[in-house]
Amino acid sequence: MSFIERQLQTAVKNITCWANKNGFIISNQKTSCVHFCKIRGIHPHPKIFLKDTPIPVVSEAKFLGILFDEKLTFKPHILNLKQKCVKTLNLLKILSNTSWGADFQSLLKIYKSLILSKLDYDCMVYGSASKSALQILDPVHHLGLRLASGAFRTSPVHSLYVICGVPCLQLRRQTLSLKYYFRIKSDCEHPMYNRVLRPLFGMFYSNKKSYIPSFGHRMRLLIQDIDMENVDILAKEEETPPWTERNIAVIEDFSKQTKSLTPDSVYLQLFYSHRQQFSTYEAVFTDGSKTVNHVGSAVVFNHLTIAEKLHNYCSVFTAEIYAILKALHTIELQDIKKWIIYTDSKSSVEALLYSSRDSHPFVFQCIKLIYTLKTNGHEIKFCWIPGYVGIRGNEQVDRAAKT
């Protein structure tokens, strides 16, 4: 303990010196210390001083909205969270009046925004609590769904999940934790990258079943259970600088028509007229497909067809935008300078037009490659075409993406 005290005291002095140098003041009244320890019985606490004033050792402390107790059971935080959510549920009880209350969709939105958001906040941290402690929050979740849906008290909770389209809290915690894990994995400069992806004390946690493993170990076990060990995560792509020209040329000859009201023959006639107008441009068709057991992307040139199988967890949008990226890479190797990329995915074209910092990494790669091609003298245009109307190139690329 004496060694720990010396190390902590040195760290506190360094922080105090840095604060004084940069104009910050650390309040003695707002400073406390928590001794995280699994040892049972009486054991000494560290004695640390801040400006010659001893820092009080407390059993729990709040940091960024989470109560950390000395045993890291997170039970005080869960009990406090339940108390706050129960108070907010009273508002939902009033608004769910059967004669003048709000409708189902409004009540569900209120529940998600006022209560479920609190339950989700930092669940990847307090998710390490014991199963019995986490189950304390389940009645709050169930009551909120009952009030929103107007279900009877005798209605099974699984039916509430289906009616409201909201999973159980355990599944939500796992989903949010996985999103956080993969977000860290996509950014090698994240401060928690090595701690999460290369967690320490693996043998210790495997031998000591009573000890709750760290976040990295918990996510590794979860990924093994759901068979996502071989999923490759794209590295985080930097957004293109604002001074970079990002004009994406889009032809909207087919967007003006309503597909449900337009016969296939009209679309074919429009396409033939369109190709006659842009006869100096080479055509390339892209498509992505997703079925239960297959996700694929394909690109069809005049005398070349490229098809690739993607991981089954990839979305249709990923397959579509990857096909466009593959087409751009192939165009880069060609001598022809004028190209029109045809796709039946409006979302892909809109993603290129209205990209943001939260866009798919493939979108950023496409934008950067388009800028590079323009710099080299290429002229790239995009055109949305309706699918399954008999356009030959689109039919070919659709078959290639599905095989």
Task: Write a structural description.
This protein has 403 residues and is an alpha/beta fold. It has three domains: 1-58, no CATH class; 75-226, no CATH class; 249-402, 2-Layer Sandwich (Nucleotidyltransferase, domain 5). The protein contains 16 helices and twelve strands. The chain has helices at 2-21, 75-95, 104-120, 123-126, 131-134, 138-149, 157-164, 169-185, 193-197, 202-207, 215-225, 264-277, 316-332, 346-353, 361-375, 392-402, and strands at residues 33-34, 49-50, 53-54, 57-58, 60-63, 66-69, 249-251, 282-290, 295-300, 305-310, 338-343, 379-384. The protein has a six-stranded mixed sheet with strand order 7-12-11-8-9-10. A two-stranded parallel ribbon has the order 1-4. A two-stranded antiparallel ribbon has the order 2-3. Helix 6 crosses helix 7 (157-164) and helix 8 (169-185) crosses helix 11 (215-225). The longest helix is centred in the first third of the chain and has 21 residues, at 75-95. The protein is globular and about 85 Å long. It starts with a helix and ends with a helix.
